[in-house]
Write a structure and sequence with these properties.
about 500 residues; alpha/beta; Amidase signature (AS) enzymes; 8-stranded mixed sheet; 3-stranded mixed sheet; 11 strands; globular; binds glutamine
Length: about 500
């Protein structure tokens, strides 16, 4: 029998539907793979019983002749930013340790309704702040990939690094991610998998621990474009509980996949040729153009003139929103409470927050409160909002000349854990290509292109018009078919 843990979403769902294997066999296989891979630290908690119970439900439904959902029998990893009923939800922070929600996030509920089960809660950068998975209270996540000739532990990217590691290591066929400024696309690129951030508002934010509410979007991470299309379909949809949720029907992205790009124009933003970008990344971009041309697309130059201001604007807007969102963690309602002897309420707030938040989270709160403070609001926050509008306008103009934009996902491949921590700005720069689409709320995807000279994966990014996930997925499929990316990390765990 084939090793079921090598299968992706579509193959598992189709196999369960046809009866080639049972959902229970799949769940058992992945539960065992998860247990074997503890050294990667991809999961904060594992939930094998959740996966088995969901599988048994699917097997029983099939036996009863019922129609099976889009994710039937697919056990997935759930980023520990999604509230899961009865299962600890921490955002990888000490301040939420022991917090067990009594409700389920809309996105996770939709996935369970579609027949998926949960292998466990995936590790991440604390409150999704980071690009390397080194800010988690529960320890670093280690990528399954190694640099050729080196045994150094590599970064799986962040903040969805537990998700990228689990999917790349074949201990989960797919996982949820969230993307505020690149956290689905950058870890996907680092680990040779696919990930799509849909248009802002496609997936409900209800029940997802908030980082920067005007930017946060959930999306799938999986090993193929088809698998992303299927899973995104199960995650998306209007939710009255989220005021920014889009009141739009969810198209059948899987059914409409089409890699024939004749008549389509692909824009190449000239401002993305930035200093500090690896030559191998530039080469992969050239290769990407050739692949899309081969698929029938016309390649055109476009300009996104405010690109260089996007990252600084993001690092004002996102911390500002975070400082406000994180005010609720005060020792009163959730998780940790630090109440020094003989102290009062103010002391409890201070002690709890001092002990509960990690350094990067504190840095963001400090930046956020600073840029929102009375004397600096106009100079920083208002200014950053203006820049954000200009970045969005750049894209609007570019999309008058093209249908989809092709760019690198990141300026470099994965790096060893611990190698980028000298200066936070170096780490922030990793998101330079990802952040503009976040500020503009656009759908964007990373697709694996090739390995670099050190045997590490490189991703290509596609950005689409608002609501045009289909255009992004189709161009992604055209790349996938031509890249033939089948490399996987050699098992060392
Ligand atoms: N790495 C970026 C940050 O630290 C983006 C994180 C994210 O998208 N959640 O803010």
């Amino acid at each position: 029998m084939t090793d079921l843990t090598q299968l992706g979403v579509k193959d598992i769902r189709d196999g369960v539907r046809s009866g080639a294997f049972t959902a229970r066999e799949v769940a058992e296989g992945f539960n065992a793979a998860v247990a074997e891979a503890a050294v990667l630290n991809a999961f904060i908690v594992t939930t094998p019983d959740h996966a088995l119970a969901a599988a048994d439900k699917v097997d029983a439904a099939r036996a009863a002749g019922a129609e099976l959902g889009a994710m039937a029998g697919v056990p997935i990893g759930m980023k520990d930013l999604f509230a899961t009923n009865g299962v600890q939800t921490t955002a990888a922070s000490h301040i939420l340790e022991g917090f067990t929600p009594r409700y389920e996030s809309t996105v996770s509920q939709k996935l369970w309704d579609a027949g998926a089960g949960m292998l466990g809660k995936l590790n991440l950068d604390q409150f999704a702040m980071g690009s390397s998975n080194e800010t988690s209270y529960f320890g670093n996540v280690t990528s399954p990939w190694k640099k050729a000739g080196s045994n150094a532990a590599m970064s799986p990217g962040g903040s969805s690094g537990g998700s990228s590691t689990a999917v790349a290591a074949r201990i989960a066929p797919a996982a949820t991610g969230t993307d505020t400024g690149g956290s689905i696309r950058q870890p996907a690129a680092f680990t040779g998998i696919c990930g799509i951030k849909p248009t802002y508002g496609r997936c409900s934010r209800w029940g997802i621990v908030a980082f920067a509410s005007s930017l946060d979007q959930a999306g799938p991470m999986a090993r193929s474009v088809e698998d992303c299309a299927i899973m995104l379909g199960a995650m998306a949809g209007f939710d009255p509980k989220d005021a920014t949720s889009l009141q739009m029907d969810v198209p059948d992205w899987e059914a409409a996949l089409n890699a024939d790009l004749r008549g389509k124009k692909v824009g190449i933003p000239r401002e993305y040729r930035m200093e500090g970008t690896d030559q191998a990344i530039l080469d992969s971009w050239e290769q990407g153009k050739a692949w899309l041309r081969d698929a029938g697309a016309e390649i055109v130059d476009v300009s996104l003139p405010h690109t260089k201001y996007a990252l600084p604007a993001y690092y004002i807007v996102a911390p500002a929103e975070a400082s406000s969102n994180l005010a609720r963690y005060d020792g009163v309602r959730y998780g940790l409470r630090d109440l020094p002897d003989g102290s009062g309420l103010q002391d409890m707030y201070a002690a709890t927050r001092a002990a509960g938040f990690g350094d990067e989270v504190k840095r963001r709160i400090l930046i956020g409160t600073y840029v929102l403070s009375a004397g600096f609001y106009d100079a920083y926050y208002t200014q950053a909002q203006k820049v954000r509008a200009l970045v969005a306008r750049d894209f609007e103009r570019a999309f008058q000349e093209c249908d989809v934009i092709l760019a690198p996902t990141t300026p470099t491949a994965s790096f060893p854990l611990g190698s980028m921590n000298e200066d936070p700005l170096t780490m922030y720069l990793n998101d330079v290509f990802a952040v503009p689409a976040s500020l503009a709320g656009l759908p964007a995807m990373s697709v694996p292109a090739m390995l670099n000279e050190h045997g590490l994966p490189l991703g290509l990014q596609l950005v689409g018009r608002p609501f045009d996930e289909q255009g992004v997925l189709n161009a992604g499929l055209a790349i996938q078919q031509r890249a033939g990316f089948t490399a996987k990390p050699e098992k060392w765990w």
